[in-house]
Amino acid sequence: MDILVGIHQYSSTTYANDLMHEDIPDNAKTKKISDFKTLLMYTKEKVYDLIVILTKQASLPCNWNLEKIHPESPPSIMIITNFNCNSSILIESFLQSIFGFGFIEEKNSIVKDSLKYISENLCESELSLEKVASKFYLNKSHYSRVFKEKVGVGFKTYVIQKRIEKAKILLQHNYSVTDVCFTIGYNDLTHFSRTFKKIVGISPSEYRRRAR
Question: Class of 3-101 per CATH?
Answer without folding.
Answer: alpha beta
